[in-house]
Amino acid sequence: MLSHEQIWGAIDRLAERYALTPSGLARRAGLDATSFNKSKRLSQDGRLRWPSTESIAKVLDATGASLEQFLGFLRSGEMSAQGISPAGSSIPLIGFAQAGAGGFFDDGGFPAGQGWDMVEFPAATGHEAGVYALEIQGESMLPLYRDGDILIVEPGAQIRRNDRVVVKTRDGEVMAKVLLRQSARSIELMSLNPEHPNRSFDLADVEWIARIIWASQ
């Protein structure tokens, strides 16, 4: 008999397979963004809440995954329960809206403090210490990145012209751009969305800049 933990675990692994958070998976399926949140898996009186067959059908349709694949995620959960871990690594995850707040990064742009979620990615993707994930929120980065997409960011990596980067200013603004030019005193950034202007900053106004090494698209 399938357990409550196995069913929800399969949904989590389906989200991870398509580089989404549970909330990103729910949004892609046309469901309320909080439908798969961990807080929704138990009622206030402690009773178990189960995902509906309709919601499972919707996420399979939205991702293109088959029922057989979903059953495979159930089986992989059984393997984990037996101490057999699928290949991959967990890295910190935070949304763009939260990333501008203080306390989530150190001075070098590495993840720090509390408040981070975790997301599974292939070991080959998250191989460097300090690699983390940012979840796109909103439509400001269309057409390249959509709401719910995940960016893998590597602080400290060498950055070259035309690299896609994440920049945080000392004013707390966090943005994903393309590096056009960097001098000893300033940087010029190209916006991913043509409806948004390009940006220029004095380096003294930039807290950190990190290269995007992978994105779910």
UniProtKB/TrEMBL annotation:
Domain Peptidase S24/S26A/S26B/S26C: 92-213
UniProt GO MF annotations: DNA binding
InterPro entries documented for this protein: LexA-like (IPR039418), LexA/Signal_pep-like_sf (IPR036286), Peptidase_S24_S26A/B/C (IPR015927)
Positions in coiled-coil regions: none
Keywords: DNA-binding, Transcription, Transcription regulation
PANTHER family in alphabetical order: FELS-1 PROPHAGE TRANSCRIPTIONAL REGULATOR, PTHR40661
Protein name: Phage repressor protein C, contains Cro/C1-type HTH and peptisase s24 domains
Source organism per UniProt: Rhizobium lusitanum
